[in-house]
């Protein structure tokens, strides 16, 4: 009875050892875990961590959590690796010649220094020009009285004058529907208001 019990226990022990050896044999990668803080020791959530395997160029990345901690799993063993840690507003930190061992997480602690710089005084000078007016917006074309007088006319139509501006294409300006045109004479609207004419501008 005792011998049978011992044999059973030995068999269970051998099975357990075999399972452990098999599980250990299945581990083929490594990882990098760490903490990112600033110069005062405050954690930096959202910091970017990039590890580059120098021989192959393979890149692994992670972002720190709310506690400033990160984990990069399933990394190729060996190395060397170069690890870059960066965060907006802080100087980036670099760690080189990092070698990873099988199944052993590499512990990395990074402290980033403030990268704020004091800007010098900036002076802005401006002058007013008569060619610009706050009441004018968009492109425009100015036509002088002499141009209007010397322009040859065939139909005595407004379109004889609108073709002087490069923004016009027939009765359309800058690609806009010609029905949105607005013509004023001495401040009064002088348009084809009812749309009964084929020409949206008066002749």
Offer a concise description of the structure.
This protein has helices spanning 2-25, 145-150, 159-162, and strands spanning 30-38, 48-53, 58-63, 69-75, 78-86, 93-100, 106-112, 168-169, 172-173, 184-185, 188-189. The chain has 203 residues and is of the alpha+beta class.
How does this structure look, described?
The protein is an alpha+beta fold and 203 residues long. Among the domains are: 27-112, Immunoglobulin-like (Sandwich), CATH 2.60.40; 145-189, no CATH class. It is built from 3 helices and 11 strands; from the N terminus they run H-E-E-E-E-E-E-E-H-H-E-E-E-E. The protein has a 4-stranded antiparallel β-sheet with strand order 3-2-5-6, with no helix packed on it. It has a 3-stranded mixed β-sheet with strand order 4-1-7, with no helix packed on it. A hairpin with a 4-residue loop joins strand 2 and strand 3 (58-63). The chain is elongated and about 115 Å long. The termini are far apart. The model has no long low-confidence stretch (mean pLDDT 78).
């Amino acid at each position: 009875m005792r011998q049978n019990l011992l044999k059973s226990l030995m068999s269970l022990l051998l099975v357990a050892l075999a399972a452990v050896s098999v599980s250990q044999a299945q581990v083929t990668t490594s990882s990098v875990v760490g903490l990112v803080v600033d110069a005062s020791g405050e954690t930096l959530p959202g910091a970017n961590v990039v590890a580059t395997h120098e021989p192959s160029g393979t890149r692994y990345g992670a972002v720190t959590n709310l506690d400033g901690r990160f984990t990069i799993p399933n990394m190729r063993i060996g190395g060397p690796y170069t690890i870059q840690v960066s965060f907006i507003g802080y100087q980036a930190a670099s760690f080189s010649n990092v070698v990873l061992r099988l199944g052993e997480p590499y512990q990395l602690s990074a402290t980033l220094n403030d990268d704020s710089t004091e800007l010098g005084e900036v002076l802005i000078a401006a002058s007013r020009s008569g060619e610009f007016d706050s009441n004018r917006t968009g492109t425009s074309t100015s036509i002088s009285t002499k141009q209007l007088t010397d322009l040859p006319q065939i139909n005595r139509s407004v379109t004889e004058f609108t073709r002087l501006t490069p923004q016009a294409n027939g009765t359309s300006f800058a690609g806009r529907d010609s029905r949105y045109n607005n013509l004023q004479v001495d401040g009064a609207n002088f348009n084809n208001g009812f749309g009964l004419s084929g020409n949206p501008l008066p002749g």
